[in-house]
Amino acid sequence: MFKKSLFLILLSSLMAGPAFGRLFLDVSIVNKKGIDIGLTLGSELHSIEEVRHNENILLKMRSGIQVVLDAYFIEERTPIKEFEARDVYGPSSFVVVKGKILDSQNKVLKDFTNEPLKIPLEGKQQILHSQESQLVEVTLRPHLN
User: Candidates 1.10.287, 2.60.40, 1.50.10, 2.40.128; correct CATH number of 22-144?
Assistant: First the structure.
């Protein structure tokens, strides 16, 4: 009897792990210099980051470009017609991403904290910053794992 109940507890704990999805953010940063004179020197950084509650994601390139991100699910309560008194619980299908692009001296190049991005899960969004013969492209794709 003890072995059977221990087996059931172990089995249920193993099955509960896949039921909870974790939010990840695919981040691609491309930094191009010399675009105004026809000479393009580029560097790229690609990363898959796990989004944790109340923690920023910080990515830094060798060129000094930094990207600071914060992401979370949009809280939405959508009643189901068959169950008007109940709300649907669980993550939204949209993720809010706030952040900044900084240069090597921590000067803000692009700030999207006041106007956050609303990105659907498995969707893509790109942020561009162009200044003084430099182009910084940040591509974001949220997904569950």
Answer: 2.60.40
